[in-house]
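ARCHIVE CARD
Drawer: 12
Card no.: 0347
Subject: one protein chain, sequence and derived structure
Cross-reference: see card 0346
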Amino acid sequence: MSYRQMAQVYDRLMQDAPYEEWVDWTRKMLASYSGHTERILDLGCGTGEITIRLAKKGYDLTGVDLSADMLAIASQKDKGRKVHWSQQDISELEGLTQFDCAVSFCDVINYIPDESRLQSVFSNAYKALNQNGLFLFDVHSIEHILQDLYGQTFAEVYDDMSYIWFCDPGDTEYSMVHDLTFFVHTGQGFERFDETHEQKGYTLETLLNLLEKTGFSIKLVTADFSETPVRKGDRLFFVCQKQ
């Protein structure tokens, strides 16, 4: 999914996202499962919130995203020019190798529309890593999709922006269609724009099968930023290692 006008309001929409928890969890997993980490690849980096935070911890970061608009915002934030930015589709990744770790957080994997494309994403992450490199990612759990997202409406009203967000089941199993309408203050009044985003949920069994088929060894499956094995939660987290 390539964000269009939504890129301009994405950070407002995500202002309460637990970015520091993603960064802390990543660092703990690196300490537990990696002997040495210098270069990290952020697949689906968006506006760079996690990417730049990791770079500030001293890692060499490369951020990849399909949306030029999202990358433009990320680059503007990167005041010290600490990150290498690359506009690519992560299912068709090229020219990126020799990383110690790859991460893909905050719904990125759920934007991959089918198992074939997802297999390509996993294969590209595998190829980008050094031997014993780690791949860390998260996804919405199927229970969270069925119980907390399907049929829900989300809305916020601010002085300069408001939105309404409908989440409904898609045409395929565990898929979601997000219909969003934004009203953004432009100085002359409010401008309306609409976007439709589609996501796909994957069962734990499907994810494990695809990862193992790619060649990854599964070191940990957990949920909601836990550091120990957990199979139930809103968001499942995976620690995988290239063999």
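Annotation on reverse: Residues 140 and 235 are 5 Å apart (CA to CA). The chain has a mean pLDDT of 95.
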